[in-house]
Write a structure and sequence with these properties.
The complex is a heterodimer of chains A (777) and B (158).
Chain A lengths: L10 H4 L11 H16 L1 H16 L7 E4 L4 E2 L7 H11 L2 E2 L8 E5 L2 E5 L3 E3 L2 E3 L3 E7 L2 E7 L8 E2 L4 E5 L5 E3 L9 H11 L11 H14 L9 H10 L6 H17 L2 H11 L1 E5 L2 E4 H10 L8 H10 L12 H17 L5 H8 L17 H11 L5 H6 L3 E4 L3 H15 L6 E9 L5 E5 L11 H4 L2 E2 L5 H9 L10 E4 L4 E2 L5 E2 L10 E4 H6 L3 H11 L1 H11 L17 E2 L1 H12 L3 E2 L5 E5 L5 E4 L5 E2 L3 H16 L17 E6 L5 E7 L3 E9 L9 H16 L12 E7 L13 E7 L9 H13 L11
Parallel strand pairs in A: 1-15, 3-4, 12-14
Antiparallel strand pairs in A: 1-11, 2-10, 4-5, 5-8, 6-7, 8-9, 13-14, 15-25, 16-17, 16-30, 18-23, 19-22, 20-21, 24-27, 25-26, 28-29, 29-30, 31-32
Chain B lengths: L3 H17 L28 H15 L3 H14 L4 H14 L2 H13 L5 H17 L3 H19 L1
The chains are: A alpha+beta (777), B mainly alpha (158).
Chain lengths: 777, 158
């Protein structure tokens, strides 16, 4: 296999890879054997082979695929974490239950808690050593975190779960090691089993060939190879695996040429990195470094003798001696290797016997395919392609640290799957979850089947957003506190306009009613179209358009009044950017899916730092958010109450487009923002409104994710004011129709209802003045 | 060109930043309890150990001039406590030290959003905003921030 490896001349690839040392006087040493070969097979042919050997070996760049990691789980006391979430995280990490909790990557039950032994890991900002600790969870959070010595640990960062690889055409993966990193017994064992005369032969071993030839002659076909390690390397590097004498012949010449040009150590090190040892789905595990991690979950340096012997055993047939599928065969072969090692004096008989008595002790096979998150991986690749060449991502062994949170991803996938299970096949879905303050994308679903790597609707389906646009209209208004407040009255009476084609357009509310006048807060909470359009007309389409852009979403080139109720098209991720600005109180943070990229050895290449942009006054944004909380409590989102944990305050907005072609929901708690879209690829009506389609998906996801409740505490600069809902005048608690609404300080209207005025005077006299603030603070 | 006044102020604030920024959360204001309603939460609960540990590491990294690492550590702390005004302030200081004055101001603003009665931290944020604006060439903005500081000082003296 691997007959053609691409040469690369990228400067990035060269570092840390010089393992080939040219010997002095090579040309002279080459001359004699080459001259001999000329006689035998023709000089041109040999020179060509030599060229092949040299260019391939020296220019050898193993393509090591990029490894993509989820965000690491950070454990600390007080961290919100349910047992189900923890279990999921440990599963994604491949941690397993083990009585012996000294081994990295294991856990065991210990009293009411869990004893965990973490794996050491090199992050872009430093190394986390192996940690052994006990943790306790209760009431959905971490309540204790102590080292085994009983000391409280402030913070434990686990290694991150591998969520995928960025492969070139062929799917070989390896973790490059230097010869001095390989345990001496493993090297010696490999040599005594595979090629005893390695340090004395010149690439081929006549005695082994003679032995093999005899066996083949007896059998009448090729049954045994007398291959040296050098020949095996040549075969893997340059030749096909067919068994023929012609190939054998080429292999022998090339092995000799290789030996002439390079020293034994370089050849051995290359062999240890090249050898094929295991298969993981479509991914071929090459080299002892990665095999150690794949089979045992261990660093190569820490392998026990029996583990080393199993690696040596697997060289002869990773599938024939598969330790999970054929444990007896693997055990027999491993113990044979141990015997040979003892016989040849690599280890003592005592050591061999002790090691042979121990179990195989390999990791159980991974149940789920590892390439699990096609939509998110797509987002990551698009992000990285801004800064990296595709071929470098596929071949330079980069480590990519992303923002995916396995537990949030799982909750989102399950919510999509369970809600769509009994819906028509043509109904499609996309969902985005974002960490509000960091702008990190924690989950992404681009298809109703989250495993399906096709059209990524979360990024590429641009659809009319319907009422999801309305918060921008109201933000534009509330940003002018002298003109509008949550208690302003808006007209809800028939309206006629002309549409973009010059035809008359008479917009209607969803329920086709007209209410005369409504409070601004209710117009948004109940998503009334007419008051919104009137408000937008008064503000000016340009002002609303600029507000949308400041929120972080693009707008159409020409704006028509219908833009005010959501004819503009956005993808779910673009909607998420817009709502991130709202959820964070006006601080726009560009959404990110990658935190950092390092080389395979941990050297940092890029860090994608947090950036914030103060797009709006936090006070104006909070006024909008207060209305979005109302939408969830008494408006278009109230049906979520039955699905959400009791007492979880959230803010959100439904969106439905013409004839229910698109069903949208965007909403947030204090720390998590989610956007869900349902619709059909052929753009036909779905029969679902925002609240009957997308909202249940969102609510089911949030039920598992457990965001912190949205904080309705008023920020500095806002005050709570009693307003009369019929007249839009100041009122007081106890008056009919009085509503407590947030206002910019001093911006509430001065006209009072008569009831309100009476109460206010009485309060003034008794000096209870500001007590109602306590309700919000 | 920076005016002599600007240079003087920047130098003064640089001294101030060198003295008291980036380390752990700023101490609760002692002089800030100026007639605020009793309900106002003037004192802050002590930092969670996880946040304190990351702040210590960030401080060390910042002292070594490793701003990227300091920022990365503070971002980790912010993921634990996203509304921690001290963390936002320290991140603003790191941005300032890196020379990213726009982000320094934005993050100081973010800190202000959560100060909740900590007068000292509020002032430090406005001082940082003033210098950042000055260095970014926004003289009018810097003046505005300083006016704000002046009224705050007057307010807290009364």
């Amino acid at each position: 296999m691997a007959a053609k490896k691409k040469r690369r001349s990228s400067p990035r690839g060269k570092r840390g890879r010089s393992r080939t040392r040219r010997q002095p006087g090579l040309l002279r040493r080459l001359f004699l054997p080459a001259a001999l070969m000329v006689v035998l097979a023709g000089g041109g042919y040999v020179l060509w082979l030599d060229h092949t050997v040299r260019t391939q070996f020296e220019g050898k760049r193993w393509s090591v695929p990029g490894t993509v990691y989820a965000r690491p789980l950070e454990l600390y006391v007080g961290q919100p974490l349910t047992p189900a979430q923890l279990q999921l995280e440990l599963e994604a990490l491949g941690y397993r239950e083990s009585r012996d909790s000294r081994r990295p990557g294991t856990w065991r039950q210990s009293g009411p808690g869990l004893e965990v032994s973490s794996r050491p890991f090199t992050f872009w900002d430093g190394v986390e050593g192996q940690q052994r600790f006990r943790m306790t969870l209760s009431d959905g959070q971490v309540t204790a975190l102590r080292g085994l010595d009983g000391q409280d640990l402030p913070l434990v960062r686990l290694d991150p779960a591998v969520i995928g690889h960025i492969y070139p055409g062929h799917r070989e993966d390896r973790l490059l090691v230097r010869l001095d990193q390989v345990p001496a017994t493993l090297v010696a064992g490999m040599l005594v089993v595979e090629d005893r005369e390695f340090f004395s032969h010149f690439g081929v071993s006549p005695s082994s060939i003679a032995r093999a030839a005899l066996a083949n002659l007896r059998a009448g076909r090729v049954v045994q190879g007398g291959s040296t390690i050098t020949q095996q390397l040549v075969k893997n590097f340059y030749l096909s695996s067919e068994r023929s004498y012609w190939r054998k012949f080429n292999e022998a010449i090339m092995a000799v040429l290789l030996e002439l040009r390079y020293d034994k150590e370089a050849i051995l090190e290359t062999y240890l990195n090249e050898v094929y040892l295991a298969q993981d789905g479509e991914r071929a595990i090459h080299g002892v470094g990665l095999a150690a991690q794949h089979l045992f979950g261990q660093e190569l340096e820490r392998l026990s003798l029996e583990q080393q012997a199993l690696l040596i055993a697997l060289v002869r047939g990773p599938s024939h001696y598969h330790p999970n599928r054929h444990p007896e065969r693997a055990m027999t072969r491993r113990n044979l290797v141990l015997d040979v090692m003892a016989e040849q004096g690599v280890i003592t008989g005592e050591q061999a016997r002790a090691a042979a008595a121990r179990p195989l002790d390999v990791l159980p096979p991974r149940g789920r395919p590892r390439e699990n998150y096609p939509a998110f991986m797509d987002l990551v690749q698009r992000h990285l392609e801004r800064d990296y060449r595709r071929e470098d991502l596929q071949s330079e062994g980069l480590r990519i640290f992303t923002t995916l949170a396995p537990a949030i991803q799982r909750a989102t996938e399950r919510a999509v799957a369970s809600t769509l299970a009994d819906k028509p096949d043509a109904l499609q879905a996309a969902a985005v979850m974002v960490d509000v303050d960091s702008g990190e994308v924690t989950a992404l679903v681009g298809d109703r089947n989250p495993r399906y790597a096709g059209f990524n609707r979360a990024l590429d389906a641009r659809r009319p957003v319907g009422s999801l646009i309305k918060p921008a209209v109201y933000l534009a208004a509330l940003d002018q506190p002298s003109r509008w407040g949550l208690g302003s009255l808006l007209e809800d009476v028939p309206l006629s306009l002309t549409d973009e084609r010059g035809r008359p357009w008479e917009p209607r509310n969803f329920d086709r009613e007209f209410r005369g006048q409504v409070l601004l807060v209710d117009a948004l909470a109940h998503s009334y179209n007419i008051p919104t359009i009137r408000l937008g007309q008064e503000l000016g389409l340009g002002t609303v358009g600029r507000t949308v852009e400041r929120l972080g979403a693009p707008t159409p080139r020409t704006l028509y009044p219908s833009f005010l109720i959501g004819t503009g098209e956005l993808s779910p991720v673009q909607v998420a950017q817009m709502y991130q600005t709202l959820a964070s109180g006006g601080y726009r943070t560009p959404l990110r899916s990658v935190r950092a990229v390092t080389r395979q050895d941990g050297t940092p290449l890029n860090r994608y730092a947090l950036a914030v942009d103060r797009a709006f006054e936090p006070t104006s944004v909070q006024l909008v958010n207060q209305a979005l909380v109302q939408a969830m409590q008494r408006g278009t989102g109230r049906s979520a109450t039955t699905l959400l944990p009791p007492g979880l305050v959230v803010a959100g907005k439904t969106g439905t487009t013409d004839e229910t072609r698109d069903s949208w929901f965007a909403g947030f708690g204090d720390d998590v923002l989610g956007v869900v879209w349902l619709g059909r690829d052929d753009n036909r009506p779905t029969g679902f409104t925002g609240s009957s389609g997308a909202l249940p998906v969102w609510a089911r996801a949030m039920r598992d994710i457990r965001p912190r409740p949205y904080k309705t505490t008023l920020v500095a600069g806002l005050e709570a004011v009693w307003m009369d809902e019929a007249s839009g005048r100041r009122s007081a608690e106890g008056c009919d129709g009085a509503r407590l609404l947030a206002y910019q300080q001093g911006a509430a209207p001065e006209q009072w209802t008569s009831c309100g005025e009476r109460y206010a005077r009485r309060e003034e006299r008794s000096g209870v003045g500001n007590w109602i603030r306590g309700l919000f603070r | 060109m920076m005016t002599w006044r600007g240079i003087f102020l920047s130098a003064a604030i640089l001294l101030m930043l060198a003295g008291c920024a980036a380390p752990g959360a700023p101490a609760p204001a002692t002089e800030g309890d100026d007639g605020a309603p009793a309900s106002a939460p003037a004192e802050r609960a002590p930092d969670a150990p996880a946040v304190a540990a990351l702040q210590d590491q960030a401080e060390a990294a910042s002292a070594e001039g490793d701003h990227d690492r300091a920022a990365a550590l503070l971002e980790r702390a912010l993921r634990i406590e996203p509304r921690h005004s001290g963390l936002w302030h320290n991140l603003a200081v790191v941005q300032y030290r890196k020379g990213d004055y726009a982000q320094a101001e934005n993050m100081a603003q973010r800190s202000l959003q959560h100060v909740r009665g900590d007068r000292q931290l509020e002032r430090r944020n406005w001082e940082l905003i003033a210098v950042s604006r000055e260095l970014a060439g926004d003289a009018a903005g810097a003046r505005e921030a300083r006016d704000r500081l002046a009224t705050m000082k007057a307010g807290s003296d009364s």
